[in-house]
Design goal:
The chain has 14 helices and 8 strands. By secondary structure, it is α/β, with parallel strands linked by helices.
Length: about 400
């Protein structure tokens, strides 16, 4: 029995350490080995593009978003704008209609989804009306850099590139310790994605800004999200999903832990499937670096919830074995106690905040798994007001 506990302890411990420390460090080393490999760009490439904005009750931000996308630096004759309103019940649709009337010289359309089924369903429905060569997706509360579409299109330099993700820049990282922790997470994750993309393909994108060929669009189940679903799909098809971090979208992170926790629960609404979405990913001889990238960046991270539980329980049962197991158990308990202290006293200490934020992230994974197992996972969610 002790052997089983030891296997669980070391295997779970490896997953945690590899996901959070080992894999990022290995990517830095691999990036240096492949330092001459760069993302190519062709700024003369200007295909027809539809910028799609999905909105549900976004009356607070939709006017700013509309003004933002009209200011994009891209040939007027080659860019269209499509607002997919996911059964909005506030003034969102009215604001969009008025904006369309005030700008008759621009190709702006409103697509009204009659039954709210979430962002992915709205994209699926609205995409069927698109006739341009490319689709650029962006969120209603994200402000796009004026060069972002030009940057995204310039990166489609070969037929095997099916997806390009932009960079999400957090603009309120100094507003609270929560938004600061989220900004730190994104900064580190962007570094990883940049290396993955120039070597072969990224494992996930971000919903604030990304693009794909219209012919490559896939109608996913509404419970899924493009961030997690698109890159692995294209990789299995032998295509590439890459990151161009010169294409930028600016967005607010949640400023209170309740908002950020809710967002992470929503992100984990299909976590069990994405531990390994397709068994073919394991074929390292065919998918090469992508197999390595997905295991380290996705599979291990999606297993953190159960790994932390198993490493704690198995460690507890092995305490009497040696001083090493005793120290490991004390270390784990201290880690969680520090998170609890941060939750109670709400200090701004950077290190306590990072520990607390990490524990909140793991808790959100557990809630996501619970929602899946109890049938409570849903394709739509209530937006975080502090991000507006």
């Amino acid at each position: 029995m002790d052997l089983i506990f030891k296997i669980l302890f070391y295997l779970s411990g490896f997953i945690i350490v590899w996901a959070m420390i080992g894999y990022p460090l290995s990517l830095k080393f691999i990036g240096k080995v492949y330092k001459r490999r760069k993302i190519e760009k062709d700024y003369s490439y200007k295909p027809s593009v539809t910028v799609m904005v999905v909105a549900h009750n976004e009356e607070k931000v939709i006017q700013d978003k509309l003004n933002n996308i009209l200011g994009l630096n891209y040939p007027k004759g080659k860019i269209e704008f499509l607002i997919a309103s996911d059964n909005s019940t506030d003034k969102t649709n009215e604001i969009v209609r008025n904006f369309i009337e005030q700008n008759p010289d621009r190709n702006i359309r409103l697509y009204e989804v009659k039954s709210r089924k979430g962002k992915t369903n709205a994209q699926n429905e609205a995409q069927k009306t698109v006739t341009t060569e490319y689709l650029v997706m962006t969120d209603a509360n994200s402000i796009m850099d004026k060069e972002s579409v030009k940057e995204l299109m310039a990166t489609f330099t070969s037929e095997d590139i099916a997806y390009v993700s932009g960079r999400l820049s957090i603009i309120n990282q100094e507003s609270s310790d929560v938004s600061s922790a989220e900004a730190s997470y994104w900064d580190s994750d962007m570094t990883i994605r940049e290396i993955e993309g120039r070597i072969q393909t990224i494992t996930a994108g971000n919903g604030a800004l990304y693009a794909c060929r219209t012919v490559d669009y896939y109608e996913f189940n509404p419970i899924e999200c493009h961030d997690s679903a698109m890159p692995p799909l294209y990789a299995v098809q032998g295509k590439r999903a890459i990151a161009n971090h010169d294409a930028i979208a600016y967005e607010k992170a949640g400023e209170v832990i309740e908002d950020e926790f809710g967002r992470k629960v929503r992100m984990n609404r299909i976590i069990l499937k994405y531990i390994l979405p397709d068994a073919r990913i394991l074929n390292i001889f065919k998918y090469k670096w992508f197999s390595y990238f997905y295991f380290g960046h996705r599979t291990c991270r999606y297993l953190l919830w159960i790994s932390h539980f198993l490493v704690l329980i198995s460690n507890c049962l092995l305490i009497s074995e040696s001083w090493f197991y005793l120290m490991a158990f004390v270390g784990q308990v201290m880690f969680y106690l520090l998170a609890l202290v941060r939750a109670i006293i709400k200090t701004n200490n950077k290190y306590l905040t990072l520990i607390y934020y990490y524990c909140v992230t793991i808790s959100a994974q557990w809630v996501g798994v619970y929602n899946i197992l109890t049938g409570k996972a849903k394709p739509f969610w209530e937006k975080a007001e502090s991000t507006r």
